[in-house]
Amino acid sequence: MILVTGGAGFIGSNFVLDWLEQTQEAVINLDALTYAGNLENLASLQHDPRHVFVRGDICDRALVDRLLAEHRPRAVVHFAAESHVDRSIHGPGAFMRTNIEGTYTLLEGVRAHWATLDSGDKAAFRFHHVSTDEVYGSLGATDPAFTESHPYEPNSPYSASKAASDHLVRAWHHTYGLPVVTTNCSNNYGPFHFPEKLIPLMIVNALAGKPLPIYGDGQNVRDWLYVRDHASAIRAVLAGGRLGETYNIGGWNEKTNLEIVHTLCDLLDELKPDPAGSYRRLITYVKDRPGHDRRYAIDARKVERELGWRPAETFETGVRKTVQWYLDHADWVAHVQSGSYRDWVEQNYAERQAG
Ligand code: NAD
Ligand code: DAU
Question: N or C: which end of the chain has fewer CB within 10 A?
């Protein structure tokens, strides 16, 4: 059994679905169900006894201790976080609490639990911290991509809080010997992506005939990875990553934001033609994000060299699947937009609290 935190969010829910497709090992899923948590993502697991959902906060030490003592997971995969850069600019407090204090609370709970294991289980145990390339700061147009030894230079409240959490994880390994691995991944995209982020926002707005807001000049670069490829990378690092190491995960897909939006408009024009001509007509330049990082790019050679991991999707195959997924899941989008996804847990899910 493994304990996953944040498994009702975008990447966490894709990871849980992938995990239960690829293995028979059960998952305890601890998630506070903030605005970003959506149990509808896991509707297909509603009657699957291998998935136990627990609504709760990673800052709740008593709950963390209880789950670890009762279920004795062999690993913790830690996704739970406040994840949206724009929200961190408007209200950084929640980011400090969940990303820093929450990671600290988990580390302390895990450290206490780990100390109770016998030597075999102790050696096999893993704490896998899921982090971001944003901790490395911003690259110039011709700089080489981020390697694992790139200095930490976080620029937003979000990335600073994630950098702090990475440092805590590193310190708990060096000081207490906790068996940790950390992955720093580039921008994910795919099913169940909350439509506050660039790709789903553009798809949903285009289909509604609303403006497609491009920050600044649209020339900021992100490096995109299909979310199920992130899930497979985490499985690979959890299984074979060296303790105390960090692994950069990325898809070798650098694109400007304008390129992304053009691609999405063109795919939509093909799959669900715009009654008014082309979705590109909706592109609107808006005020830039304060402190907007210019470019991220991940050098993913270490994870390939050591663990043989490579993404299965190209950007072209992944983005086509993603657009098609949003076209096929209008109900999911409508529930998110109306807010009714937040009632779903009460109406449809037999929440099984541990103990
Ligand atoms: P998300 O915002 O979609 O999901 C976060 C989940 O964490 C939600 O289900 C939310 O309910 C839960 N959560 C928030 N606060 C909590 C708390 N205090 N206790 C318990 N649960 C809580 O985020 P995401 O995009 O799926 O990102 C998951 C992780 O991956 C984050 O750590 C993020 O920093 C990292 N990451 C994201 C990306 C990306 O492109 N989205 C890329 C690299 C790394
Ligand atoms: O790099 C990994 C990070 O990617 C993760 O750690 C974060 O959790 C995740 O949210 C994401 O951060 P970004 O800020 O890169 O993602 P976002 O989708 O918010 O923005 C992507 C780019 O698009 C960025 O340059 C800002 C721009 N943008 C975004 C939105 C929402 C726009 O131009 N218009 C928009 O409306």
Answer: C
Contact 74, 124 (CB under 8 A): yes
Domains of the chain: 2-191+223-255+291-313 (3.40.50.720)
Q: State pLDDT tens for residues 219-264.
A: 999 999 999 999 999 999 999 999 999 999 999 999 999 999 999 9
pLDDT at 324: 98
Q: Are strands 254-256 and 221-226 parallel, antiparallel or unpaired?
A: antiparallel
Ligand that lies nearest to the alpha carbon of residue 289, given by its number in the listed order: 2
Ligand 2: which atom is nearest the Cα of residue 223? 1
Nearest Cα residue to atom 8 of ligand 2:
83
- Does ligand 2 have an atom closer than 6 angstroms to the CB of 155? no
| Both tokens assigned to 137 | 């700061």
Q: Which atom of ligand 2 is nearest to the CA of 212?
A: 36
The residue to which tokens 């899923």 are assigned = 29
Q: What ligand has the least distance to the C-alpha of 135?
A: 2
Do the Cβ atoms of 62 and 136 come closer than 8 Å?
no
Nearest one of 162, 152, 148 to 305, comparing CA atoms: 148
Catalytic center residues:
133-134, 158
Enter the tokens of residue 287.
């005020």
